Amino acid sequence: MRPATFRRLLNLWPPFLFNSIRVQELAEDWSEARVVLRLRPWNRNYVRTQFGGNLFAMTDPFWMLLAMHRLGTDYYVWDKAGAIDFVAPGREDVYASFHLTEALVDELRAAAASGDKVLRWFDTEVTTADGEVIARVRKQLYVRLKPGARQPAP
What we know:
- The structure is a single chain.
- This protein is α+β, with helices and mostly antiparallel strands.
- The protein is 27% helix and 34% strand.
- The chain has helices at 3-12, 14-17, 52-57, 62-71, 102-112; strands spanning 21-26, 32-37, 75-86, 94-99, 118-127, 133-145.
- A hairpin with a 5-residue loop joins strand 1 (21-26) and strand 2.
- The chain is elongated.
- The two termini are 26 Å apart.
C-alpha cells in the first residue's frame, strides 16, 4: 500500500479519528512521519490539558511502521516497550516527528544479520508549534531476521 493511502486510512482509524490525532505526513519512502494532536473539548483531561493517553497514542505506532516498511518483509518488527515522560502541560495542539535514517536502517540490518533479536530504543519529543517540549516518548522495537530470509547485499 502506498504511504499516502496508508496515511489517509490511519486518519480514519477510530483511535486517531475520535481523539483528534492526524497524520500530517508519511514520506513516500517510509523514512518520515509527522503527527498532530489537536486540543479539543472532548480530548482534554480534568485540568483542561492534553490527555496523557493521547500524547502516547499519537506516537505509538510510528517507529514500528517506519521500520517494518524500511526493512521489508524479511524481518519481524514489533513494539516491545514504551515509556513517556510528561514535561509540561499541553495547553494547545502538539506535534511529533519521526525520522528513520538510512544509517539507522543499515544498523538494524547489521545487528539482525545473525538471526538474533535486536532491541533498539527510539526517542520522540512531543512539542508545541513553538517547539516547547510537552513530553518525551521512548519506544523499544524488537527486530529479527526471519528464519530462511537472506540479508540484502550491501
